[in-house]
Amino acid sequence: MRFSPALVLLTLPALVQGQASPYVPLDDPRLPAFELLVSRGEVRDPSPMVRPFRRRDALAALLEADTLGAPLRRVIQALRGAWIQDTATARWSFEARGGVDDASNGNRDPLHPAGDAELLPYGELTGTLAVGPLIGVTRPAIEPRLTDDPDWPGRHDLKVVGRMAEAYLSGQWKYGNFFLGAMDRQWGPGMTPGIPISAYAYPRTEFAFQVGTPKLNLTANSAQLTDETDSLGARVHRYWFAHRLSVRPSERLSLALWETTIIGGEDREFDGRWRNPLSVLLLSNQYGLGHDGNIMVGADVSWWASRTLRLEGQFAIDDINYPDPDSDDQTPSRYAFTVAASGPLARTMGWKALYTQASSLVLRTFNSYETYADAGTGLGLGFPDRDQLSLFVTVPTSGLSILTPELTVQRQGEGDLDDPYPTVDAAAGNVPTLFIGTVETTWRAALGGTGSRGNFRGAWNVGVHYVQDADHVPGRSRTEFQGRIRVTIGIATGGQLP
Fold it and tell me: Cα–Cα distance between 50 and 38 in angstroms, integer?
């Protein structure tokens, strides 16, 4: 769709009135072009450290951008045209896409490859219905590669398997909104999974709401996780809750405090005290009514230190332990953090560097049913006991196409989410704070790309890995190729409801 100033003028009243808008999914191939504009400081970040954002919020930021002499003026205008929406009070849209999906391994994490893969078909349908402040979105996908993904919690015995990539109902008003359904989320600096919430695991149905303004808002999310079975055959219920208070004192600085918790047990219910968005869970529950949940607290910061340098950080504490020599409890502290820096490069490119570290026992606890995982896959960080240093460069090519060269080194200890948490006595002085056992080191050089032109959309990534002490075996090394590509073509229609 070509950019039209007339359409922009029609859209402005809708932005003021708070018209319902779909969220921009994390796998939208046009999103990296928008992120490039944000990282260069040419477009305001609609929700620092939180993804996804609504399409109307991205469009508002694009409309605010000064394109006079802007190096990426054509990208800004192309995104305005792609994300502009009908201003009708009641509207509908439908899109069908089909294509191919191929990869060198079954799962989606290139740094922890697992499972086999092959060239397979892919198809999806996206339906949207908006009536006033309410909007519903459904995106069922036929994705046969899921049977090759060890992280997929569903069936692996079928030739054709599908999932709901998105399925939600949202009510949106000026000072608040609610969300009921499922979609991929990310809290934290981009390019690596967020600590509390990420798209590492497949989305689960949740209820969420946000109240406030862009400068001060409170968000809360809650969901029931997959039930498990204990050694006696009893069903164990598990629940997840997260809340985040964000303040934006200026356009250059954004701060947030957040808490997440996992509770689980036989015949356990989702007690109301664990879902109170205004309660400090650590104080009112763990140090108040009793320790019967795994609580993690954290903070986010995003700061433009100068016109050409943005600094971001996410810091999480699962448990801080000050061992007493006379106590049996010598378990190490559990923590994780990510720090990142980004900015413009040359006339049209962008860069981002990040370092992330997760301690050996973070995301786990004494009660195995309170591990930060759903169906065995991490809810935020997928793997503890690791660190990662990465450098990314983002290069615009034509239209909304983006190339992203990457250099990464990852060190991975033998700690794993599925490992049993060590007992207090056994842990006394035996578990290091970081890197259990033999450390596997992966050196990665990769090139990724995303693009959208007409009815075609695609995303691909290819990389070469040199792995030292592979599989945690001293002296073993290997060189391997990792790649993934998805290309689709679609047709879309829509209109106003009578």
Answer: 13
